Amino acid sequence: MQIQMYTDHNIAGHQALAAQVNGVVDSALRRFSDHVTRVEVHLSDENSDKSGQNDKRCVMEAHLEGRQPIAVTHQAATLEQAIDGAADKLARLIESTIGRLREQQSRRTDPPPPGV
Prior knowledge:
The protein has 116 residues and is of the alpha+beta class. The protein has one domain: 2-Layer Sandwich (Double Stranded RNA Binding Domain), CATH 3.30.160. The protein has two helices and four strands; from the N terminus they run E-H-E-E-E-H. Strands 1-2-3-4 form a four-stranded mixed β-sheet. The chain is elongated, with a radius of gyration of 18 Å.
C-alpha cells in the first residue's frame, strides 16, 4: 500500500508530518492492505490567518483494487485530530465496501451449464 501526502501552501509538509501521516494511515488500514493499492492524504488549513474550531481539514482517498477510489473528509481543530478522524472514517468505509462486495459475491449464482 502506497501512501502519498499533499499539503496546501499553509501547511509545511516536513518529514515529521509525513512520518506521522504514514504511521496513522498504516495503522488504521493495515488489515486492508491486500485490497488497497494507494492512499492519498490531502491536508489543508481552511483559514490560515486565524485559528478556528475546525479549520484543519484532511481528505483521504483510497484506491481499491478493481474499484473506483473512495474518499472521506474530516475537519478538526488540529492536524493530528483531522488525520486521525479521516483515517477512522476511511477504515470504516473500506470495511463496509469490502463487506458489501463479499456479500454480493456470495449471493451470486451462476447459470446452470448448457444441457442441464
